[in-house]
TrEMBL record:
<feature type="domain" description="S1 motif">
    <location>
        <begin position="208"/>
        <end position="239"/>
    </location>
</feature>
<dbReference type="GO" id="GO:0003735">
    <property type="term" value="F:structural constituent of ribosome"/>
</dbReference>
<keyword id="KW-0687">Ribonucleoprotein</keyword>
<dbReference type="InterPro" id="IPR012340">
    <property type="entry name" value="NA-bd_OB-fold"/>
</dbReference>
<feature type="domain" description="S1 motif">
    <location>
        <begin position="31"/>
        <end position="107"/>
    </location>
</feature>
<dbReference type="GO" id="GO:0005840">
    <property type="term" value="C:ribosome"/>
</dbReference>
<dbReference type="Pfam" id="PF00575">
    <property type="entry name" value="S1"/>
</dbReference>
<keyword id="KW-0689">Ribosomal protein</keyword>
<feature type="domain" description="S1 motif">
    <location>
        <begin position="124"/>
        <end position="192"/>
    </location>
</feature>
<protein>
    <submittedName>
        <fullName>30S ribosomal protein S1</fullName>
    </submittedName>
</protein>
<dbReference type="InterPro" id="IPR003029">
    <property type="entry name" value="S1_domain"/>
</dbReference>
<comment type="similarity">
    <text>Belongs to the bacterial ribosomal protein bS1 family.</text>
</comment>
<dbReference type="InterPro" id="IPR050437">
    <property type="entry name" value="Ribos_protein_bS1-like"/>
</dbReference>
<dbReference type="GO" id="GO:0003729">
    <property type="term" value="F:mRNA binding"/>
</dbReference>
<dbReference type="GO" id="GO:0006412">
    <property type="term" value="P:translation"/>
</dbReference>
<dbReference type="GO" id="GO:1990904">
    <property type="term" value="C:ribonucleoprotein complex"/>
</dbReference>
Amino acid sequence: MDRFSPEGTPGAREVGTFSSLSQITDAIDTGAIFEGPVLKCDSAYNLLLDLGAAQGVLPFAESAIGADCGRVREISVITRVGRSVCFAVTELQKTTGGQYRALLSRRQVQLRCQQEFLDALVPGDVIDAVITHFEPFGVFVDIGCGIVSLLPIDCISVSRISHPKDRFYPGQHIRVVVTGRDQLGRITLSHKELLGSWEQNAADFSAGDTVFGTVRSIENYGVFVELRPNLAGLAELKDDVQVGDRVSVYIKSIIPEKMKIKLIIIDTLSPAPAPREKLRYYFTGSHMDQFCYSPAGCLKQVHTQF
């Protein structure tokens, strides 16, 4: 449902710019959802927007679900400056100076998003999300109208990463799959199931190829080199190689029945670039019942049932 897409999604909602006061009153009557950039946050943590025919004021209490009962921190409001927010117009007021201002609510839009969209989601549903901020344990994503959910680091990809910044960047548009709800009723997410099985990823490589990858971990028995977000191989130990290095590797062998790729590190290249490449999603539908990462006949089975 486009009107409940994450904030900043191109074309999801009408731009909140009005050429006349009558258009603003029409917006109040219809309850339409708009989106526009925040220009300023005042000392009372109200957000100010330019609606064209009037100034838009988004009071702190209407900035998000829970703001009216003390569950929203001021910093989360301040950081909206310079970014787009979704809103509905609730009232048009004439100030003592004769100017008009429109009162806005993001909280009401989020409640509608929760009731009409998010509450209907079931495990296996695949939805759009936008990266909002990082923590060492995972990344927070906007899953609809500024409502945020956690994507744990171990659910980002099969190839292990040290920090979510190794895979994503702020504002990145991604896809996520719903895995369920936690004890507080919040939606839980995963991502790695959308990045393809071992066999799908390994199909891009053959024994004898020399390719490049990123060093993800170094153990006493070898070096794990990521070839794809959902595919890594094990290389022999090599001096002066560090986690995060971009390396060229020779593929010695590919063993599907053991889900193993044996590598030899040839050379250390320039540092791994920041993750700006568009992720390749092998699953492009809107719902998945299950995901099997392991090839047929593999001794170890890695399987997700939604």
